[in-house]
Amino acid sequence: MSTETTRVERAELRRDVARPVRVGADDFVVWCSPDGGVRSAPRRCPHLDADLAGAPVIEGVLVCPSHGWSFDGTGAAFKRNERGRIDPKGTVAALTARDDGDGIEFSRA
User: Fold this and answer.
1) Under a CB-based contact definition with an 8 Å cutoff, are residues 28 and 46 in contact?
2) Which of 41, 66, 76, 84 could potentially form a cystine with 71 if both were Cys, beta carbons 3.0 to 4.6 Å apart?
3) DSSP states of the chain as a string?
4) CA-to-CA distance for 51 and 89, rounded, in angstroms?
5) CA 68 to CA 44: how far, in whole Å?
6) Dist CA 29 CA 6 (whole Å)
């Protein structure tokens, strides 16, 4: 069984906006968390299929610009309502990341 991988230079990852990547036939977005970790989510929001490439990342959380669904980058999806309550919305796929110091290798088994 082979694993598809994609490499991204660390300098290409940002903490304020998601960047698109393709791993095999699957499209994802990736970003850095405030602690320097690497996060990922599918490129399309499962709510209404909005494109998350270029979507804002706020305090390490990717936020869909269409309806506010949020992704923690480890697979959890949720929506924060106007009073701050967090409503879980299930899970989404996330990539495995391996940092070699200069770049990040993303994979999905």
Assistant:
1) no
2) 41
3) ---EEEEEEGGG--SSB-EEEEETTEEEEEEE-TTS-EEEEESB-TTT--B-TT-BEETTEEE-TTT-EEE-SSSEEEEE-TTS-EEEEEE----EEEE-SSEEEEEE-
4) 18
5) 13
6) 12
What is the residue whose two structure tokens read 């949720």? 78
| Residue 104 near residue 13 (C-beta atoms within 8 A) | yes
> Does the model's pTM come out above 0.85?
yes
Paired tokens of 17: 């906006």
Q: What is the maximum span of the chain, computed from C-alpha positions, in angstroms?
A: 47
User: Average pLDDT for consecutive 10-residue bins of the chain (109 residues)?
Assistant: 84 96 97 95 97 97 96 96 92 95 88
